[in-house]
Design goal:
GO molecular function: branched-chain amino acid transmembrane transporter activity
Pfam families: BPD_transp_2
Helix content: over 70%
Strand content: under 5%
Number of helices: 13
Radius of gyration: 20 Å
Strand order of the largest sheet: 1-2
Number of strands: 2
Main location: membrane
Organism: Rhodoferax koreensis
Keywords: Cell membrane, Membrane, Transmembrane, Transmembrane helix
Length: 325
């Protein structure tokens, strides 16, 4: 008899609860709940994209927030020129993030280790200061998004619509990641993380695989930025700051680096913990920091790793019980 997977049931429960957030916000008269969970989903989408290169590819990118910023500015700049067509904004986001990701990836992926980290950070800082210098688009003060993305059948100007679009994208990307990492592409990418020299000796063009993953992650992060600009009604160079990239890395590690569902749980746990601790103390960072360290030290694969380890122990006990019989 096949044992129940508690990790999968837990993820299913989380998704079910997320589906009913708008109804809860309306019935309880808590519009902040809808806005807050929308923010969680946007950051979860960016964290899932980072997990592709960090968790499965072993590439520690400290400039991933750059693409969130590009997506946000694609909306903000076009809106300032009175272009609110969502498909055009999405097209600009995808093209800009793919082009920047391809160029920076070709340079960065020829290095590894600390050099890769510093180069990705340097590129992100370059674009950060570029947008700070663009005074016609707000400079350091940022840019108000005057027109929300209108896709014809729906508009992201509606908070409920934006929420369900963000949730649908998160679920779609999670399913795509699940299929991708189990396919040949995912196998090669994970092989590169473990031993790239051996993968090259087997005849795989490892740079091509890693660059494809890097560009794909950049585009998904850019789409998260597009949603974030519609959510906040703002585009700012601060979205590209290295601190945002660090926050995304924490979400991936906290949730479960190298697991499909870990980044979603990491975003939920981190952002919910921040909100709860802010209501308790002004020094919430001093409490949150040790809690993150504790999770990372006690679980190799973060919060989701706890559930996977639980499933593993139950499976081993079941095997032993069958052997005794």
């Amino acid at each position: 008899m096949r044992s129940v997977s508690y990790s999968r049931w837990f993820v299913a429960l989380v998704v079910l609860l997320l589906l009913f957030v708008p109804q809860y916000a309306r019935l309880a008269g808590e519009p902040f709940a809808l806005t807050f969970v929308s923010r969680v989903l946007v950051f979860a989408l960016a964290a899932i994209s980072l997990n592709l290169v960090l968790g499965f590819g072993g590439m520690v990118s400290f400039g991933h927030a750059l693409y969130m910023g590009l997506g946000a500015y694609a909306v903000g700049i076009l809106a300032q020129h009175e272009i609110g067509n969502g498909w055009m904004q999405l097209g600009v986001t995808v093209l800009a993030c793919a082009a920047v990701g391809a160029v920076t990836g070709l340079i960065s992926l020829r290095t590894s280790g600390i050099a890769f980290i510093m180069i990705t950070l340097a590129f992100a800082q370059m674009f950060y200061y570029l947008f700070v210098s663009l005074k016609q688009y707000g400079g350091d003060d940022g840019l108000s998004v005057t027109l929300r993305s209108d896709f014809g059948l729906f508009s992201l100007g509606s908070p409920v619509t934006l929420y369900y679009v963000a949730l649908a994208l998160v679920l779609a990307v999670l399913f795509g990641m699940y299929r991708l990492v189990g396919a040949r592409f995912g196998m090669v990418l994970r092989g590169c993380r473990i031993n790239e020299r051996r993968m090259k000796a087997m005849g795989f063009m490892t740079l091509r695989y890693k660059l494809t993953a890097y560009v794909l992650a950049s585009v998904i992060s850019g789409v998260a930025g597009l949603l974030y600009a519609n959510l906040t009604g703002f585009a700012s160079p601060a979205y590209m700051a290295w601190t945002v990239s660090g926050e995304l890395i924490v979400m991936v590690v906290l949730g479960g680096m190298g697991t499909v569902f870990g980044p979603l749980l990491g975003a939920l746990v981190l952002l919910f913990s921040e909100e709860v601790l802010k209501t308790m103390t002004d020094h919430w960072q001093m409490v949150l920091g040790p809690l993150i360290v504790l999770v990372v030290l006690t679980a190799r694969r973060g919060v989701y790793g706890y559930l996977l380890d639980w499933d593993g122990r139950r499976a081993r006990r079941a095997i032993k019980a069958e052997a005794v019989r």
